[in-house]
Design goal:
Blueprint: E1 5-13, H1 17-32, E2 39-43, E3 57-58, H2 61-66, E4 79-80, E5 83-89, E6 94-96, E7 110-111, H3 114-127, E8 131-134, E9 138-143, E10 149-154, E11 157-159, E12 165-170, E13 174-182, H4 189-198, E14 209-218, E15 228-234, E16 243-249, E17 254-262, H5 272-279, H6 283-289, E18 293-303, E19 314-315, E20 318-320, H7 336-354, H8 367-375, H9 378-384, H10 388-391, H11 396-410, H12 449-455, E21 468-470, H13 475-484, H14 488-491, E22 497-500, E23 509-512, H15 522-526, E24 532-534
Helix pairs in contact: 1-3, 1-7, 7-8
Length: about 550
């Protein structure tokens, strides 16, 4: 079936911080130079911000550059950080570090809802003439005659589970562009195909990841400390597993609590979701939540590879921006400011191409983007901290000692660079590890997966093909089950994967509950044989985060 098409100068895939920043910057440049440039942003979530989840403490450096008058324009930055704590937890006690590492000092930063910030950025972009289409998922990269990217196509709507059109079938739309910017976020499904086609990861370290799980609570006023930022390391994770927590006190007696586990963990019995629930029952932490109400839940993978994992950023007809390329500063626990800056720099490079008086062609490559980014503050910021996250392969205490030396003495100028290995290669077999005894949820402080997914407002049209594809249907039972006791049941924070048996315990089979998926991408990353491929479902599906 023929698809309708629309023509733009620039198409941006993803209405997150980097995509919206790029759109705004393009329109600013167009206005300054009196050149009309058409910009379109498509977003798979039902609205701008629906799929956005982050801590989040925001460093405003990039926002200051993009929209210097953001305060007067009503940007939703309402909670300045009032103080920092870093705690080490044992099972029963907590110990405050006598100092806060320089990367984790948050004076001048703001605790925000990143979803709300994106909604506001979307309003600014639309006010400048950017066309934003939420509820449309980019499912295919379009290529020209010379192999260049010339846009994307949105997925068909109204396709049944068996792949046949339903009575509500609507074919996708082709969005053609001179330049296409991919701002899909961490582990973008189209970005993966670009890595392969253009060999963008050649000579680079593999990207590494963590899973971040977050809840939003309304707590008792007497324990609320507006603007307070607390991070923890230690219990319940062992010293060989990277991770920790955050507690950010927002306005109106709200607190964002989250737990991060590096996906290079080794024990197949480890369950990040249940580690999070167990963490909240620590005596030092539980007191914050007693008498409170949990009001939102979500999960998302995070890039942790840093400097050495940044791919080649451009290719004929397009570029990678934001978290889809991986600009997170892991020791700082921030990536929004660097993502936004990458969008700004990419916009400048793309604009310089578009204003050239030559026939427009999708084969144009914005080489200036990568060159300019290397000259910006992003590159030295990430280079300085490049060795801190990989040092944690030695364990918590050796890594903390090295990080102190790197931060205070070497100041990021070490003549060496540590390297990464793929996360999916780290799992040990179950016969090499001990099972972990997790307590049952109490329904007050700790909860089960399904009640959590309910709070994420996740929904997918039931009668559609599963967006979770198995390359080999036999692997889950023939390999994952005997070797790892099916780790997909544990690393998924939404109960998507279940191993079911007959009443007598025979005939195990894998059931995929794709409707539960919160689009965190963890399964695509951590599956030990890389047998799971996450693809985009129908537009508008997935979580609907109100203010995460």
């Amino acid at each position: 079936m023929d698809r309708e098409s629309m023509e733009y100068d620039v198409v941006i895939v993803g209405a997150g911080p980097s995509g919206l920043t790029a759109a705004i910057k393009l329109r600013q440049l167009a206005e300054q130079e009196k050149k009309d440039i058409s910009v379109c942003v498509i977003e798979k979530g039902s609205e701008v911000g629906a799929h956005i989840l982050s801590g989040a403490v925001l460093e405003t450096r990039a926002l200051d550059e993009l929209l210097p008058d953001w305060k007067n324009q009503g940007a939703p930055l309402n909670t300045p950080v009032s103080g920092d704590r870093l705690l080490y937890l044992t099972q029963e006690k907590s110990f405050r570090f006598p100092f806060t590492p320089p990367q984790m000092r948050n004076h001048g930063n703001f605790i925000v809802s990143l979803g709300d910030l994106c909604r506001w950025l979307g309003e600014q972009a639309e006010g400048m003439g950017v066309e934003i289409y939420p509820g449309f998922s980019a499912s295919e990269v379009l290529y020209g005659d010379d192999g260049e990217v010339c846009g994307v196509a949105t997925g068909d709507m109204g396709v049944a589970k068996d792949g046949t059109p339903t009575e509500n079938h609507q074919p996708g739309i082709e969005l053609h562009a001179t330049q296409t910017l991919f701002a899909e976020g961490c582990r973008g499904s189209l970005t993966k195909t670009l890595f392969e086609r253009f060999q963008l990861r050649r000579g680079k370290d593999p990207q590494t990841y963590a899973i971040g799980i977050k809840e939003l609570w309304k707590i008792q006023p007497e324990v609320h400390e507006i603007g307070s930022v607390t991070h923890t390391v230690g219990w319940p994770l062992d010293s060989q597993t990277y991770g920790g927590s955050f507690l950010y006190h927002l306005e109106e007696d709200q607190i964002a609590v989250g737990f991060v586990v590096g996906l290079d963990y080794r024990n197949p019995y480890l369950d990040p979701f249940r580690e999070f629930q167990r963490f909240k029952n620590h005596p030092r932490i539980r007191s914050v939540f007693e008498g409170g109400e949990r009001i939102a839940y979500g999960a998302r993978a995070l890039n942790e590879g840093g400097f050495q994992s940044i791919p080649k950023l451009t290719f004929p007809g397009g570029a990678l921006i934001g978290c889809t390329a991986g600009f997170m500063n892991v020791p700082k626990i921030k990536g929004t400011h660097t993502a936004m800056k990458s969008g700004m720099v990419a916009a400048e490079a793309v604009f310089s191409l578009l204003k050239q008086e030559i026939p427009t062609s999708g084969s144009l490559e914005a080489f200036d983007y990568e060159r300019s980014l290397k000259s910006s503050w992003v590159w030295p910021e990430l280079h300085r901290v490049r060795n801190i996250r990989p040092a944690f392969r030695w364990g918590l205490w050796p890594a903390l000692i090295y990080s102190a030396i790197d931060s205070y003495l070497l100041r990021g100028r070490a003549p060496w660079t540590f390297h990464h290995k793929p996360d999916h290669e780290s799992l040990k077999k179950t016969n090499e590890c001990k099972p972990i005894d997790y307590p049952n949820p109490d329904g007050k402080i700790s909860f089960d997966r399904l009640s959590s997914v309910y709070l994420s407002n996740t929904n997918h049209e039931e009668n559609q093909p599963s967006h979770l594809k198995l390359k080999n249907m036999e692997v889950p039972i023939a390999f994952n089950l005997p070797n790892y006791e099916s780790p997909e049941q544990r690393f998924c924070p939404a109960g998507v994967y279940e191993i079911l048996f007959e009443e007598d315990g025979s005939s195990p089979r894998l059931q995929i509950n794709a409707q539960n998926c919160v689009h965190c991408k963890t399964c695509d990353i951590k599956d030990p044989t890389q047998n799971i491929n996450w693809e985009t479902p129908e537009g508008g599906g997935g979580p609907n985060y109100p203010n995460m």
